[in-house]
Amino acid sequence: MTRSLLIIVCFSFSFNLVLAQGNQSAAQGDVLKTLQEEGSGDQVSVEVDSLLVSNYNKLIAKNMKSSGIPGYRIRIYSESGIGAKQEQQQMRARFLSLYPDQDAYNRYTEPFFKIYVGDCRTKSDALKLQDLVRKNFPSPIVVEDFINLKSGN
Fold first, then answer.
1. Residues 75 and 114 sit within 8 Å (Cβ to Cβ)
2. How many CB atoms lie within 10 A of CB 109?
3. What is the C-alpha separation between 80 and 63, in angstroms, rounded?
4. In angstroms, rounded to a whole number, what is the distance separating the alpha carbons of residues 47 and 43?
5. Three-class SS state of 104
6. Which of 46, 47, 118, 136 is the most buried (most CB within 10 A)?
7. 69-147: what fold?
8. Taking the model in full, what pTM does it have?
9. C-alpha–C-alpha distance, residues 32 and 28, integer Å
10. What's the N-to-C CA distance of the chain in angstroms?
11. Which pLDDT score, from 0 to 100, does residue 22 have?
12. Cis omega before residue 111 (within 30°)?
């Protein structure tokens, strides 16, 4: 996987070199397809293994399915059992009333009802938020998650 990633990075670098030499029309479309196309003059032609193409396409499909970008959130609630769903809703409402500038997300991962808060791009931001919410919510936990990118970020 690391080797495939390295090869993809090399292809991306080569693609940028091609663009820098004046072929701006190649900027549209798939990088791998553009590099594989035969050209003349100052264009680059690349032959790649079918396994690399397959892995590349799987990576593209996976990225298209995921919403958001990698980041961090704080888990402030995780319970199961009778009444956990109602408690989850009450905790979320309480959080939003205390921190109206932050977002809160309900999730159900059998058998747990969970609440995640914040959209932190860095772990440092997440740790700051964790310290802030610790006053009102005991045992907050920083977790990696796909976050929503806000227009101000």
1. yes
2. 9
3. 32
4. 14
5. strand
6. 118
7. Alpha-Beta Plaits (3.30.70)
8. 0.60
9. 11
10. 31
11. 45
12. yes
Reduce the secondary structure of 26-57 to three states and give it as a string.
HHCCCHHHHHHCCCCCCCCCCCCCHHHHHHHH
Average pLDDT along the chain, 153 residues, taken 10 residues at a time: 60 53 49 62 72 86 78 96 95 96 94 95 96 94 89 55
Burial class (CB in 10 A: 0-12, 13-18, 19+), 147: buried
User: Is residue 124 left, alpha or beta, with left meaning phi > 0 and alpha meaning psi from -120 to 50?
Assistant: alpha
Cα gap 98→71, rounded to integer Å? 23
Please tell me the distance from the alpha carbon of residue 130 to that of residue 142, in angstroms, as a whole number.
7
3-state secondary structure of 14: helix
3-state secondary structure of 135: coil
Domain limits, the chain? 2-65, 69-147
